[in-house]
Each structure stands twice: as C-alpha cells, then as structure tokens.
Amino acid sequence: MPTHIIPMPRTPECWESCGACAQGEVFILDIAVAVGDWLDFDQTILTLETGKVALDIPSPRAGRITALHITPGDRVAEGAPLLTLESD
Length: 88
Fold this sequence. Notes:
The chain is mainly β.
C-alpha cells in the first residue's frame, strides 16, 4: 500500500496578509481524526485558528491514518506534516 504524508496546505487564501497568518504559523485548535481511522477525500482532518477565524482543513486524499504528526495546541507552518495515510 502506498504511504502519503499529508502536509499543512497553504490556507487560507490570505496566508501572507492577515493577522497571525502573516507569521506563517497557525494554531491547531482540534483534531477530528485518530490513528486507525479511515479518512475520506475532503473529510475534515482538523480545525485551525489563524488569529481571526477558525477553519476546517479537509483531506486531499482517502486512506487509513497510520500516524498523526500534530496535537491540539501545536503551531504549524505551511508544509508541516499533519498525518500519514496508507491508501489502496
């Protein structure tokens, strides 16, 4: 089975110009999945806070979660690994 590391996407669209996003890091407010869960395409992985708004981050692919690389309260930058998936 192929393994995929899912990174923090470039989000929101105003990444460079708004509040805390300007520093390139966002706060992980909540994680909606756990190791062993099956994750569908576009299913919410986590909720982040940018300093101005809370946003749900969807999965760009489907697969079984084999590792989480974040915890609630972490600050992450664009490209930081969020989780590892195995897909069919």
